[in-house]
From TrEMBL:
Alphabetical list of InterPro entries matching this protein: EamA_dom, EmrE-like
Superkingdom assignment: Bacteria
Protein name: DMT family transporter
Record organism: Pedobacter jeongneungensis
Alphabetic keyword roster: Membrane, Transmembrane, Transmembrane helix
Key word Thylakoid present: no
Pfam families for this protein: EamA
Residue span, EamA domain: 8-136, 144-281
Keyword flag Transmembrane: yes
Length: 292
């Protein structure tokens, strides 16, 4: 019981930290692509150092390496879209749109795993679509941010579905490490292509370095390892419910930090309530369905 309580606290703190990434994305004053490049560089270096300290064997087969490495490209796209959405809209809009990954997972997972789509998944998806429509209708000035937020959700659902298959044969922390390395590689290639890498300089402001270090260590590598560790004692249902608090924590933190800049119309909050209510209902529906 004590171990369960401890892991519940760790999971809540981890989800809280994930919610804080939106705030960091807003206060770091560099564009989304270089921000993610620094993030994965710091995070992969930190994880590698952790593996060295713990003397962990991180050897994988060529097939596994290729799978993780390619999936890292999807992770990179997800983070770039996520932070770009924040830059062109608000943290609240982006986090609510990102919550729609439940909808896209309900569609993509059966397609990838060749399983039938469930009627309950469709109904939950329709509720989420209704919430997205409300946000589009009342927050039209953030259309670009909404689009990139939804694209980030699609990328998130895609790599999450792939990882749910990969994790059956490999340890999550090792998958995460190679995906981070892959993300760094693919972003580096892109930055070579668009010419920005040649102009990369490391003389950023002290504020930017502080926030990037927080983003790469606490919000990425540390949070990832902590999130994986608690899954050994907590049920998937509990983990899913608590993880759904990420946009709630993020929106509250954004309002505390940015106040009036994060204040939305009533229509936005109605749409957000529909979406968040749907994603909280989803794991409850799944648990009851599995009992039948």
């Amino acid at each position: 019981m004590e171990a369960t309580k401890k892991n519940l606290l760790i999971l809540h703190l981890t989800v809280f930290v994930w919610g804080f990434t939106g705030v960091l994305g807003k206060v770091i004053s560099i564009d989304a692509v270089p921000m993610v490049w620094y993030r994965v560089l710091i995070a992969s270096t930190t994880l590698f150092a952790w593996f060295l300290i713990t003397k962990k064997d991180i050897r994988v087969t060529k097939k596994q390496f290729l799978q993780f490495f390619l999936t890292g490209g999807i992770v990179a796209i997800h983070w770039i879209f996520f932070f770009h959405a924040i830059k062109v809209s608000t943290v609240s809009v982006t986090l609510v749109c990102l919550s729609s990954f439940t909808l896209f997972t309900a569609i993509l997972e059966p397609l990838i795993k060749k399983q039938p789509i469930q009627m309950g998944d469709i109904l939950i998806g329709l509720l989420i679509i209704l919430g997205i429509y409300m946000i589009f209708k009342f927050e039209g000035q953030y259309t670009l941010g909404i689009i990139f937020g939804l694209l980030a959700a699609i990328a998130s659902s895609l790599f999450s579905t792939i990882n749910s298959t990969l994790v059956q044969k490999s340890e999550p922390s090792i998958i995460g490490f190679y995906e981070l390395v892959g993300a760094f590689f693919w972003i580096t290639l892109y930055r070579l292509y668009d010419g920005t890498l040649l102009h990369t300089h490391f003389n950023l402001s002290a504020k930017n370095w502080f926030y990037l270090t927080l983003l790469g260590t606490l919000c990425t590598s540390v949070a990832y390892v902590a999130g994986v560790a608690v899954m050994r004692t907590l049920s998937a249902f509990r983990v899913a419910l608590i993880t759904n608090l990420e946009p709630v924590y993020g929106i509250v933190l954004a309002f505390i930090f940015f106040q009036n800049k994060e204040q939305m119309t009533g229509g936005f909050y109605i749409g957000a309530t529909i979406i968040l209510g749907s994603i909280f209902l989803y794991p409850i529906y799944k648990k009851r369905k599995n009992k039948l």
